[in-house]
Each structure stands twice: as C-alpha cells, then as structure tokens.
Write a sequence for this structure.
C-alpha cells in the first residue's frame, strides 16, 4: 500500500484520511503524532461494521508513556481494520503512512473540517 | 511560568535530536530515538544518561555524620569513607520526604543526592536539622553535572578512559578519579538494575566527558538514553520512584522498606517515635504491600488505576505501570491489601478505563541481572 502524504487530508487530531473514489477511505495517524507518542505498544481499533462519527473516539493508541484516544476524522461504517498493526503496533511508528494504516471506513456523512498537507504542516508548526 | 532549567549538556541533546520534556522544572531528554531500543541497549550493552537535574547537597564538618544521623533514617556516621548508602529523609510524622543516596566522600564530608523534584525540600530540611551540630550544609546543585553509564559493557567502557581501580570499586561505593582527563567522583551506583557508574563532574567538563564516553562506547554499542527508558528500567528492577511508590503519606514501613530505618543508631532522629509506631503497626496488621503485577493482556496499567478482586472490589492501587521491553508484556507496581499479595493469587485485575483486565501477582523485582 503506497500512500502519498501530499495527497492526504488531515485532522487536527493528527489522523490522516486517504479519500478514495469508491467512497471507502483509509485512516491512519501522522508521523508527527507517532513521533509524539513514542513507541506504540497497543492499538485498539474499532470493529468491522461499527459506526464511527467524525471527531469522536473510536479506539485507543497506547505507548510506553501514555494512552491516547483514536478519533475518526469522518463518519461512516468501518469496512476493514489493519490486523497487521493490531499484531505489531510498532508499525504505527515505523510506517505511519503505509503498513501502519489503522482502518477503512465507508464514508456516509460530512467529514469534520480537514486540512491539506500544507495547512496541517502549518498547524503542527504553530 | 518560569523558564525550565537546562543542563550543561543541553546543546548536545538538541544536536542529537532528543525529544525534550519538562521534568521537575528541568528541560530533560525524554528519548533520542526509540525508548525501547535505549532500554534494550542498557540491558544488553550500555547506555549514557544525563542526570544533571539530580540535587547534590554537601554536608561537611566534624559532626557531619552525626547531623545526618539526626536528619535521616539511616546510620550515616557508620558509613565507611568511599561507600554509599540508600536512605530516606522523613517528616516528624514518619512520612517520606525523599529517598536519597548518600556518599561518604571524606572523613568529615558527605555528598547527599536528592531527587530533582525534592532537592529544595531536602536542602531546607537538612539545613534546619543540622542546626546545633558542628556541620555545614551546602547547596552544591550548580557544582555538578551528573552522567551515568549503565549496562554490562559499562565497566569496559569506563576502564578505557580512566586509571582508577574500577575492579576494586564495589557496588554502592565511590572514589575520586580522572575520566578522559576530567576530574570526577566515580560512583558504582545507578537506577537501572544493571552494573554501571555515575560520574559527578564540573558542569564545564560535562560535554568533554560525554563526547569521550560516546566515542569509547561506540564499539561496545553504547547509545544515549533518556528519562523514558530510565523509568522502564527502574520499574523492571522494582526500584521505587518518589511521587509514585514513595510519598509523604507513606512511611518506609508502609513501602516495604523498613530496613532503611536504623533505630539502633546513636542519638535521636527526626521521625523516630512515629516510625517506631509505624513499625509496630506494620508488624501487627500488615499494611497494603507493594507487589508486582504482570498483565495477561496488552493494555497497560498506569499509576492511579484501581486494583480490584474477582468481585470488582477495590483492593489496591497501581503506583507505576508500563510495557516492559524485557518481558514483552505490561507490568506494574501496586500497593495491594495483604490478603491478595501471595504469588499466584487469582482473580486480581486492574481497572483500565472501566475494563477489568486480569493480572498476575508476582514478587519484585520483575528483572534481576545475572551476576
């Protein structure tokens, strides 16, 4: 799975969203967030079939020092979760834009306000 | 908000790309790259730490030992020159104000090392309690940078930089020497569960020493290490941390560390009456006991989480918890009611955000190095 960070959209909660044409989007967290978390040791993902709501918690990311909520950047139904990352959470650190993707969602509603790459970069700089 | 303090090695940490964190008013390296790799380096090779935030206090004079006997729970006047002791300073009610390492650096000289967060309290307390003794308490916090080399390769690395007789330097001992051309107090102490050394040097010499240790350590696999892995290392080694296992509301007896209190030393000491009572209480009705917990799942117990029994009743509280890089599972230290402290006690769980996650009770430490 190859993802170009330039073409993604970003939430202020540091998720990225790869909006595909078939309406099923892929969600992960950014390398900035992965760096801030430190070594991720446990990932709780939503279940396939679950409804997620933009801006609401749908899982958690546990690192050596802390636990963080995983928010969904869009509303919809979860169609697939990344079992590889559940088995090996370090993928979130080593490949946040590739093998460390988290779940796929069939988008039903409006996304929360998402940022372009340039806007997100400015946001994390600020 | 006041600016955080920076150690003499601050520029080096930034050049190395460290993630910095505020710790007790100091801007300290949390990690340089992966905290798990830093942890494994200390367990299997060597790690280099900047611990300059620790608080050094010199106590000197003809009655320095007696002053410390009075101020602390240990018997420091009996300490041989060149040796070190783990001890505590307690409030009059027996509560722990800090845990300390005290080095006897001369016949009439001691170096007290306090936790960064408590250094001012310890300094003030020692100054107050030394009044009436022929002893001087001196704030030496700015006099030292502190570097630690920890791990099985630490002796080989240090030996390549000093003529000091490391072979005869025992655990919990210290001697003055020269390391990489820098005058240092070389102490065989640490907080990682591994063999290693702590080097007290002038701040102006810290960068030179760090660079020399980095170069000498490279062939041995030494890496710079931050506070994050220091915490998982000490947790695996079952070592208490002030503010977690130790607080002003527990006595050494409640923390399972009653052995540090020396009632048979000469003279009176602050907290004696309260500590005698605490010892008697602990002997009669066992208090909550500090135990190890090993998670059966992958969620991590954290400080403050309740420990519960099979019926869901609260039987204790987690004081520290983290994923253990060495064991590969989450571990924790927790104070637990005496009825549930036996190894193999069943039905013990930690309430992790509302979910009762099963844990096994184990004896501390989780990890002990082979000697």
């Amino acid at each position: 799975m190859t993802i170009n960070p330039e073409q993604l959209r970003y939430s202020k909660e540091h998720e990225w969203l790869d909006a595909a044409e078939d309406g099923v989007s892929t969600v992960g967290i950014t390398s900035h967030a992965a760096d801030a978390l430190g070594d991720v040791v446990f990932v709780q993902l939503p279940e396939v079939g679950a409804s997620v709501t933009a801006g609401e918690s749908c899982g958690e990311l546990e690192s050596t020092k802390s636990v963080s909520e995983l928010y969904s950047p869009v509303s919809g139904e979860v169609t697939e979760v990344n079992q590889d990352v559940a088995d090996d959470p370090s993928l979130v650190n080593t490949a946040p834009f590739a093998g460390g993707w988290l779940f796929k969602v069939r988008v039903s509603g409006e996304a929360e306000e998402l940022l372009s790459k340039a806007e997100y970069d400015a946001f994390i700089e600020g | 908000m006041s600016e955080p303090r920076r150690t003499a090695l601050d520029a080096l940490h930034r050049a190395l790309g460290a993630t910095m964190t505020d710790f007790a008013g100091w801007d300290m390296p949390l990690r340089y790259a992966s905290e798990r790799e830093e942890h494994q380096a200390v367990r299997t090779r060597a790690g280099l730490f900047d611990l300059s935030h620790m608080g050094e206090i010199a106590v000197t004079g003809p009655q320095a030992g007696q002053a410390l006997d009075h101020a602390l729970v240990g018997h420091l006047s009996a300490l041989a020159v060149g040796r070190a002791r783990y001890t505590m300073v307690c409030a009059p009610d027996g509560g722990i104000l800090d845990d300390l390492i005290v080095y006897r650096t001369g016949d009439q000289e001691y170096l007290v090392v306090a936790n960064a967060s408590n250094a001012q309290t310890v300094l003030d307390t020692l100054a107050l309690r030394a009044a009436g003794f022929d002893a001087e308490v001196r704030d030496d916090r700015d006099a030292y940078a502190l570097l630690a080399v920890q791990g099985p390769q630490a002796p080989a690395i240090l030996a390549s930089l000093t003529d000091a007789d490391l072979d005869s330097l025992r655990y919990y001992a210290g001697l003055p020497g020269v390391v990489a051309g820098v005058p240092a107090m070389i102490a065989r102490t640490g907080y990682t569960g591994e063999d290693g050394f702590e080097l007290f040097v002038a701040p102006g010499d810290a960068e030179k020493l760090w660079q020399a240790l980095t170069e000498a350590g490279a062939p041995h696999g030494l890496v710079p290490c931050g506070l994050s892995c220091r915490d998982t290392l000490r947790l695996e080694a079952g070592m208490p941390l002030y503010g977690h296992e130790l607080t002003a509301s527990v006595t050494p007896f409640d923390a399972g560390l009653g052995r540090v209190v020396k009632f048979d030393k000469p003279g009176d000491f602050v907290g004696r009456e309260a500590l005698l009572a605490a010892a008697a209480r602990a002997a009669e009705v066992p208090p909550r006991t500090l135990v190890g917990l090993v998670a059966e799942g992958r969620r991590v117990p954290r400080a403050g989480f309740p420990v519960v029994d099979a019926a869901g009743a609260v039987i204790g509280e987690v004081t520290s918890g983290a994923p253990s890089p060495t064991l590969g599972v989450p571990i924790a230290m927790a104070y637990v009611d005496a009825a549930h402290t036996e190894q193999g006690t069943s039905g013990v769980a930690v309430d992790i955000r509302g979910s009762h996650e099963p844990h096994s009770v184990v004896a501390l430490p989780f990890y002990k190095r082979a000697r």
